[in-house]
Amino acid sequence: MEKARRRKKVKVRARPLTKLVILVLLAAIGWQLYGLRSQVRRAQEEREQYAALVAEKQRENAALEADITEGPTDEKLEEIARDELGLVKPGEYVFEPSH
Question: Which residues form a coiled coil (predicted)?
Answer without folding.
Answer: 36-67
